[in-house]
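Side project, low priority. Logging it here so it doesn't get lost.
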Amino acid sequence: MYLWQCSKSDAIEALAWFIVIGSPIIPLTNEYCAHTCEGRFVPHGYQNYGSFNNIIINEFDSKEDGDAIGLALIF
């Protein structure tokens, strides 16, 4: 609503939820952030990015989606 300078509506909220839920980049970014935060509280050597790696393997094609993966890491 701020981008289009209009008042809040159900249509704009539905579009925002679609963008957040429909993009595979958001779960990948969330998982990376979770593991990075986890690394601050887990003893050295016990941090595991296994679920992050599983998302990359199962949801992305590393050759075609390399830019999207890089963008998720930047976010």
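Brief comment: The chain has one domain: 21-74.
Revisit when time allows.
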